[in-house]
Amino acid sequence: MKETRYLIDVAIETYCEEHTTEESDVLKRLERETNITTLMPRMLSGKVQGKFLSILTSLFKPKNILELGTFTGYSTICLASELPNDGHLVTIDKNPEIEDIARKYFKESGLADKIDFYIGNALYIIPRLNRQFDLVFLDADKERLLDYYKMVIDKIPVGGIILVDNILWNGKVIDKKCDDKITKEIRMFNDFVQLDERVENVLLPFRDGLMMIKKIIE
Fold first, then answer.
1. Could you give the CA distance from residue 159 to residue 135 in angstroms, rounded to a whole number?
2. Hey, CA dihedral for 149, 166, 81, 83, is it positive or negative?
3. How does DSSP classify residue 214?
4. Whose CA, among 8, 131, 174, 216, lies 20 to 30 Å from 87?
């Protein structure tokens, strides 16, 4: 049997990494520290997804970004690195244990002034954010995924983008034998978005599944 990581054959993933522009030294050090010091280092976006996020940001040119699920800050740095001079990113995570690592690398990346980092429950923090966001990256706990979506959809303008990570959940979403709570929540989210007439969406079999959602009407 082929060795896989998420849904991707490891050899294919390695080939993709070998043919993706190298990450910065800051991101390399962050990835190493994450692997050494955290219990679930696989939550880190990594080189290929990180470069995808940074290129997408450079193409889309959002002025304000919202990220739910900071972890150690790898994806945060990738997103913030392509912001315009007056751009800003808000990132929220519920785990205070990762705060020191994330803040350390935000500073080392030279992007700390562009990043507002909140530790706490996003369901309480989001309503207090008095601004609109051109791009939202949802990579937080999946049990509240639909709640997050319903809260942020009104905070993005027509033409705004929502990216949602881990949306294939290791392939469990199509396994009828899987009926655990998280899998059912992700299926519910996918079905809700598919029927939401305010948006158009594409589900990409990228890493563990990445859904891109574009708001087309209020």
1. 9
2. negative
3. E
4. 216
Distances in Å between the Cα of 64 and the Cα atoms of 87, 125, 187, 201 are 6, 16, 29, 21
Q: Dihedral, CA atoms, 185, 50, 110, 156, nearest 10 degrees?
A: -50
Could you tell me which residue, 117 or 179, shows the higher pLDDT? 117
Residue 13 contacts by C-beta under 8 Å, 6 or more apart in sequence?
A: 5, 48
| Calpha distance 113→107 (Å, rounded) | 8
Strand 210-215 versus strand 161-165 pairing type: antiparallel
Cα–Cα nearest to 72, from 27, 110, 7: 27
pLDDT reported for residue 206? 87
Residue tagged 């070998």 (tokens) = 18
SS3 69: coil
Q: Which of 51, 23, 46 is nearest to 34 (CA)?
A: 46
Which two three-digit tokens encode residue 204? Answer: 């990409």
| 126 HSE (CA, 13 A, CB side) | 23
Place of tokens 């980092």: 117
Q: At what angle do helices 99-109 and 25-37 cross, to 10 degrees?
A: 170
Q: What is the mean pLDDT of the chain?
A: 94
**pTM, rounded to two decimals:** 0.94
Taken in order of first residue, the domains within the chain and their CATH numbers are 4-215 (3.40.50.150)
What pLDDT digit, counting tens, does each position of 6-20 carry? 677 888 889 999 999
